[in-house]
Amino acid sequence: MSTDSVSIAFAGSGGAGVLTAGNVLLEAAASAGWYAYLSRSAGPQIRGGESVTLLRVSRNRVESHDDDFRLLLAIDWRNFERFVAELPLSGDSLLIGDAEAGPLPECLAAYAARYCELPLKRIAKGMSQGRPNMVALGVLAAAIGIPCDKVTEALAHTLRDKGQAAMDAGAACVTAGMECARELPLIKLPAAPAPRAHGERLLITGNEATGLGAVRGGVRFVSAYPITPATEILEWLAPSVDRLGGTLVQAEDELASVNQAIGASFGGTPSLTATSGPGLALMLESIGLAVAAEVPIVVVDVMRGGPSTGIPTKSEQADLGMALYGLHGDAPHLVLAPLSVADCLFTTQWAVHLAEALQTPAIVLSDQSLGQSRAVIERPADLAFIGRRQTLEDIGERYARYAVTTSGVSPMAIPGMPGGQYTAEGLEHSEAGTPSGSAADHAAQLQKRRRKLTDFDYGTHWAEIEGEATTAVITWGSTTGPVREALNRRAVAGWATRMVAMRLLAPARPDAMRQALDGVERVLIVEQCEGGQFHHYLRAHYDLPAEVRTLCKPGPLPIRPQEVYTRIEDWH
Amino acid sequence: MDNGIANPALSARDYKSSVKPVWCPGCGDFSVLSAITKTFAELQLDPAQVAVISGIGCSSRIPAYLNTYGFHGVHGRALPLGVGLKVARPDLTVLVTGGDGDGFSIGGNHFLHACRRNVDITYLVMDNQVYGMTKGQASPTTAPDWALSKLTPEGPGINPFYPLVIALASGANFIARASSSDPNGTARMLVDAIRHPGFSFIQVLSPCVTFQPEQREWKKLVHPAPVEATSDPAKAARRLMTDDNLFVGVLYQGTRKPFQPCLEADLEHAAELDEAFAI
Amino acid sequence: MNAPSVESLTVAELLAHSLAIEAEAEERYAMLAEQMEVHNNEAVAALFRRLAEIEGKHVAKVRTMPGGDSIPHIAPWNLHWAGQTSPEAPEFGEAHYLMTPHHALELALQGECYAAEFFSEVAASASDETVRRMAQELAQEEREHVALIEQWLARYPKPEAGWAEDPDPPNQA
Questions:
Q1: Which domain holds residue A279?
Q2: Hey, what's the torsion of the CAs at B257, B261, B264, B270, to 10 degrees?
């Protein structure tokens, strides 16, 4: 367990408001200088369900949850068993319940942790417009030592649309809560880092960061069909892309949304759609069209538990196989994955750039744990790679849209360019774009479409590589967070480990991986997928050392740093 | 241009590509192709400002035969391709074409929603009541007792889809039926459809001489619509109650405002959007 | 401008009709020639190509007639045969991939007859003297074409029944 951070959980049901209060605490901690990471778990009810907000506050950048929680506060215990597995506690944890909420549930008794009852509801009742969640907010802030003024500032920001009376009532509850927490044992947060100037850091969810990366990359057309847990990307983009002179269209289904994006991109506008596993499955046929017709688009899949409807509100890395191999025919395309909440911005922007430069679809595999978590991140620099596609400049004698060039990328005419008329073609075609069933045309076009991806210089962005050692951990996407944390702990314990966290999954870069694994004698493969899709992918495309271990675990439970640590504890 | 101007700059043949159609000789789609090139010539459209979008099927091959921009997409998805293109590029003339299987079966949902959305595009369906490319299976507009397919040897046994009824009910802004036996009349309707704001739908009866040879008789059976086009959906609906599926003419010309978001920016740099998240 | 009635045709409008007749026939024969090429019916393809060339010459000829350099454009649906296909152009629906030169010439003969009929009708009913005279000349020309094609047709006897039989099933595309 980390000593640089404190993890707390805040549970309640029936409109208790634990998410709102948790977000206020997050914002207060962030503005006081800490780093923080917040996620939420909820029952299936649209309103009034039981939910728990999980918050980690730290001196350093945090990208995932810790092994266990130091503090659990529950306004009530209704259906609490639902969360037990997601909420590891220990004998050192402090449990706080409301005096009126009944006894501590049996599922928690085993921890033999210290349990305190506080009169949250009674205090709230005694105040004008008092609410137990606001009293609890004060308790939590006091328990971990977040300054009162930062909490009231954040509260005022959150309640700004509700009027002064609500803000005052909230602030009074917070003060009362802080007062009531005096008797509690203090769980000391490590000292806040030096204060930072406003604007140096962002407080953002992965889904919002994905949207920001998209528009920074130049996306100006977005097609949308709502699906959990991707909808927030689209909701954020709707007004944002509009302000930038683009538009978002809500389509009738995912078949339409992917084709709208392809149509808009054919017209020259960088385009994106976002979905989750079931939606991506529907889009695959048309993503193949974008491969064949060489039309750039970006499709973000915010992965959730599957197959079928699966577990819509929880994370899993199990769409990798579909994203890599789901297209019919021999259809090279790009598959990328953000490695953290912050990296959602970078990877999406890079995906737009690559799709545009290579005139091909890019699938970005984010997931629920990134998309719906909110974190403090460093404000990213204005990155240089704005999406640019090579468009037709000189028609020449006769324009051949699918000309076989050295790079494999053929200059693209955009409707409106005189003399550039061609038909974007999903049938196999000649260089001119005329349908063709000839073996020679098929081979030439297949090779060109593959070559443009394999010969491109992706630089060092294909993976994050850290540490020099003979032991390595290979992972991808969101599991990078716990892996990095585990390896930092190993470093503190005196054991060096190499980390290879893959951001670019297709096309495979076997040479780059060979270099990354130079001198490595054993690897652990970490993924949040029961079937080991990532493990099999690595086996198929890369040379791995003889000694390979795996940590392939399904969602919805996140992979904890300690699990990674334990799996290679004997590897020195 | 309607009439009277000598020597227009572009003639119908300027809109044809050098690709030779693979349709069966006798197919109604040749006539539709001819009507399309005449239409573009009548409107004197710049071929570089026109995009013809299609899905899959015999008739969906049409973009390759034209000297405009084109997109030959996947089966059933031509309308969303066209909608996305037009919304992002309102300066273009977008014509979506295809057949009855592509448009009313696999693409049926997009047809409903394209009518509803009312983007300013024209959708021309060459209806021959059969899947020709896969060797003659029943389509959504095939008669229930058509028993010539091995797939449904006793006929599909289900009621046909009524494209005009669905278009009217779903909110299309211009609805017409044409016959490939009259390429000039088809061209006239297509000119009106392209000019009419919003989503315009034309069903063209276009015989399949290979799998529905009796459709050769359509040219004798079609007849002009008995009444003028209306802008009243209720009148149009009443007229469809007595439709024999063989009248030719414009049924409905609505006044609904087309869907077209404004594409003007009020922010210069995307990075300015960071500010909302700054702490 | 509405569809001109035959009675009130002007010289310029007559030329526009004449040009439309020949141009449409040329385009149609060219398309039919392509269709036959694509379907490997070389003999009929060659025949249609030849007919297209002839019609092309007729187009050129109309343009050299007095007033031929400033023929007004009339929308296809406003031509006298509005709603019909142009008289000389064979209908697309009449084509068949196994058709023989006999069938092709029958189509051409029918087209020339319709064209002759059209001009004869104009010659009989136009109110303008010059229009009547010109239409008579044009009708005469079309009748010459009819005679020519009849001679041609005599060389290609009617094929036996079963000419359209194909032992193979259709292909899937």
A1: 202-378
A2: 170
